[in-house]
Amino acid sequence: MRHVPSVLLLLFALATARAHAAEPTTAPPAARAEGVKVRIVLVGDSTVAPNGGWGPGFAPLVSKEAEVVNWAKGGRSSWSFVKEGWWAKALADKPDYVLIQFGHNDQKARGIGDTPPLLAYREWMARLIDEARAAGARPVIVTSLTRRLFKGDKVASNLFEYADAAKAIAAEKKVPVIDLHARSIAELDKIGPRASVALNYVAKPKDRTPPTDKPDLTHVSPKGAELFGRVVAEELIKAVPELAPYVVIK
Questions:
Q1: Nearest Cα to Cα of residue 143 among 224, 57, 199, 78
Q2: Are residues 38 and 67 in contact, defined by beta-carbon separation less than 8 angstroms?
Q3: Residues 155, 157, 158, CA angle at the centre, nearest 5°?
Q4: Helix (H, G, I), strand (E, B) or coil at 201
Q5: Judging by beta carbons within 10 Å of its beta carbon (0-12, 13-18, 19+), is residue 228 exposed, middle or buried?
Q6: Which residue segments constitute the domains of the chain, with CATH numbers given?
Q7: Rounded to 5, what percent of the chain is helix, strand, coil?
Q8: Distance between CA 219 and CA 227 in Å, rounded?
Q9: Which residues make beta-bridge pairs with 142?
Q10: How many Cβ atoms are within 10 Å of 112's Cβ, its own excluded?
Q11: 82: which residues sit within 8 A by CB, 6+ positions away?
Q12: Contact by Cβ (8 Å): 104, 144
């Protein structure tokens, strides 16, 4: 047997330690203590939030052995969610998995300083992934729910750049991704513009600032939440197979 110099053994040990340090620290659900629920935290904008997002349609599809906590907030971008302290609160909930969806508000011309909005989005999404991992959670990227903008009978989404950026970041960081943008376009293309009207969010008069009769093509009705929440659940068990026992789709 050839003698291996001690310096090579040391280098090998250091490389192995670094590789393990880069791996997510969250234990898989099967390894959790009996009676301790798997915690799935949702973060994002109003298209995820309880009032007008898909979150309420997703939560009922999670079994009693897991729980969903929805920290999504309307009007927030990837960076304002952090700056206003919502991200810290979400991580303080000690999630096992964090589903992260931003893009709608990042798209608006409100970058950080001179940073173009799309570049700022990439930088802040990468930061969210890194900080979720550092907190012991497994991040899952969700691409933006499409707006219901039709050209003829097909959706003409204006969020492709942000969906593509989210997928690129997920690939770079080696995290699971749910392509809700593509799936929501496919679902809407199937039902068409007329049937999609039933998915439009209708605000109560007191919630309208100012009052308007213009249809809301971004947020969703309870029926829309049910449809897209189911899509997220279906895609989650593909992207994160170990969560399949905790998702119940009838």
A1: 78
A2: yes
A3: 155
A4: strand
A5: buried
A6: 33-246 (3.40.50.1110)
A7: 50, 15, 40
A8: 13
A9: 178
A10: 16
A11: 88, 124, 127, 128
A12: yes
Return the bridge partners of 43, or none: 100
Encode pLDDT of 73-97 as tens digits: 999 999 999 999 999 999 999 999 9
The structure's pTM equals 0.85
For 4, half-sphere exposure in the C-beta direction (CA atoms, 13 angstrom radius) is: 6
Tally the C-alpha atoms within 13 A of residue 72's C-alpha that lie toward its C-beta. 29
Instruction: Cis check for the bond before 29: say yes or no (omega within 30 of 0).
Output: no
Specify the 3-state DSSP secondary structure of 135: coil
To the nearest whole number, what is the mean pLDDT of the chain? 87
pLDDT band at 211 (very low <50, low <70, confident <90, very high): low
Nearest one of 62, 131, 129, 120 to 101, comparing CA atoms: 129
